[in-house]
Write a structure and sequence with these properties.
Elements lengths: L27 H21 L14 H9 L6 E5 L37 H6 L2 H10 L8 H11 L3 E6 L5 H5 L6 E3 L2 E8 L7 E3 H9 L13 E5 L8 H10 L5 E5 L21 E5 L8 H5 L16 E5 L2 H12 L2 H38 L9
Parallel strand pairs: 1-2, 1-7, 2-3, 7-8, 8-9
Antiparallel strand pairs: 4-5, 4-6
Helix pairs in contact: 1-8, 2-10, 5-11, 10-11
């Protein structure tokens, strides 16, 4: 399954060179990135030299085996890594699927090339295409999926350490994952900032929504510069919190669940190699992804996922849609009825809230129209 409400492929950490005016005086991000690079190299050399333990935790490399492990009580720190595949059933297109992906349908914006719509330099000169696209994909128009609510259940049961998402649609938040539960690796629409380095005033989701749906190009109230949602464009660094959090989270992970991503976008894709050698990894996707690179394997650097070889001992691939995979796992865990009830309840709540908002908007529009068409009151005689 192709990536994304996630952003495109050239966000490789080493390839991103922020413009001088965008660069922060705080060096914590660079330090964190450097530390994680060193951790990654240590893991590679450890693998090549055969160092470290590789205990088999699952009794069977199947979804049933994963379910038994979760139900054993030994699984207390689950990390979910997710991409666009968890949101496609909500009606949000991914980026790269031929014919249906976002990049295949951008001709109407007259871009020099499809990726330009998320290129920071192009955006500063030509913001109109991005905001036109934002009207089509804006958060609040879609409901979270079964997969989103499955992660909420993991949180409610106290076994979700964190969700690392490539998506920018905020559906994890709508489903009930809060700020501390989430690492939005490619940013989010949830907040926006003035692009001027000297200003950087923050704006809310509601402020940005009002601007976008009134066909206004959002401009800063303070300095009149462009205001951009806090999603990561080409030419921008990933959030510093991505690098600092993964150093803490992945060594403690005792089950990694990867859903709806092709694991092609770096540095996000490399996270699968940062868990311990004993940590089981479950992929729920429409196709196998993140497997060992044959060339790297020749040098002993088998850090990818291994589903099929004789040496496979911890990786499980469940080939299905993300929703079907989560329902199947919930069924094996004895949670299926609870999950279905949660989805039904939350969707009803969202529908009710939407109906109230539309009724309020219609009432306001009717009152405005009535006021405009009412005859003028007669003047009092002097």
């Amino acid at each position: 399954m192709s990536d994304s409400s996630e952003l495109p492929k050239s966000e490789k950490e080493e390839e991103v060179t922020p413009e001088p005016e965008e660069q922060s005086d705080d060096s914590s991000e660079d330090e964190a990135a450097g530390d994680t690079d060193m951790d990654f190299l240590r893991n590679l050399f450890s693998s090549a030299l055969g160092l470290g333990s590789a205990e088999k935790v699952l009794d069977e490399l199947t979804l049933d085996g994963v379910a038994r492990y979760i139900n054993s009580g030994k699984c207390k720190n689950i990390i979910c890594m997710v991409g666009a595949g968890i949101s496609t059933s909500a009606g949000i297109p991914d980026f790269r699927s031929p014919g249906t992906g976002l990049y295949a349908n951008l001709q109407k914006y007259n871009l020099p090339y499809p990726e330009a719509i998320f290129q920071i330099d192009y955006f500063k000169k030509h913001p109109e295409p991005f905001f036109a696209l934002a009207r089509e994909l804006y958060p609040g128009q879609f409901k979270p999926t079964i997969c989103h609510y499955f992660m909420k259940m993991l949180k409610d049961k106290g076994i979700l350490r964190r969700c690392y998402t490539q998506n920018i649609d905020t559906l994890e938040r709508v489903a009930g994952l809060e700020g501390d539960d989430l690492i939005e690796a490619h940013g989010t629409f949830y907040t926006s900032h003035c692009v001027s380095f000297c200003c950087r005033k923050e704006y809310s989701l509601e402020w940005m929504k009002e601007k976008i749906f009134s066909d206004d190009i959002p401009k800063c109230d303070k300095c009149s510069s462009l205001v951009k949602p806090d999603i990561v464009f080409f030419g921008e660094n990933l959030p510093a919190r991505f690098f600092t959090s993964m150093k803490m989270d992945f060594p403690r992970c005792d089950l990694l669940i990867v859903m709806g991503t092709s694991l092609q976008v770096q540095p996000f894709a490399s996270l699968v190699s940062r868990v311990s050698k004993s940590c089981p990894r479950l992929l729920i996707n429409m196709e196998k992804a993140g497997q060992v690179n044959p060339m790297m394997g020749l040098f002993g650097f088998g850090e990818g996922m291994d589903f099929d070889s004789d040496k496979a001992y911890r990786d499980v691939a469940h080939i299905s849609t993300c929703d079907d995979g989560c329902l199947a796992l919930a069924d094996l865990l004895g949670w299926k009825e609870e999950l279905e009830e949660l989805v039904k309840k939350e969707h009803t709540k969202i529908d009710s809230q939407d109906a109230k908002e539309k009724a309020s908007e219609n009432k306001g529009a009717t009152a405005k129209a009535s006021s405009a068409s009412a005859p003028p009151e007669p003047k009092a005689e002097e």
